[in-house]
Amino acid sequence: MTTPNKTPPGADPKQLERTGTVREIGSQAVWSLSSCKPGFGVDQLRDDNLETYWQSDGSQPHLVNIQFRRKTTVKTLCIYADYKSDESYTPSKISVRVGNNFHNLQEIRQLELVHPCCCKW
Description:
The protein is mostly beta strands. 8% of the residues lie in helices and 22% in strands. It has a single domain (13-120), classed as Galactose-binding domain-like (Jelly Rolls, Sandwich).
């Protein structure tokens, strides 16, 4: 998501998109996962259905890679997590990294999550 102003934590991304505050740009990117169980991949991660989700199937770290074809400014990243719904698969740490390619990524933000409940960041 991109936005001209700072978006408050917990804001509803769909509402912000309807009002023109943000623009969803995820469809312009190529998404890949470090691993996934059959039927729990990128399509489920991106389908806007809170009943479906990505489920990793491998050793940590579990990665979601979002690659844009050209240099793209991303000002807001929205992530939904609900510990009550998927306790064993809810991330405890999220690292946001940026770069020109996979080999020069630098961490720009790290979040520690403690039992998030219906949260969007």
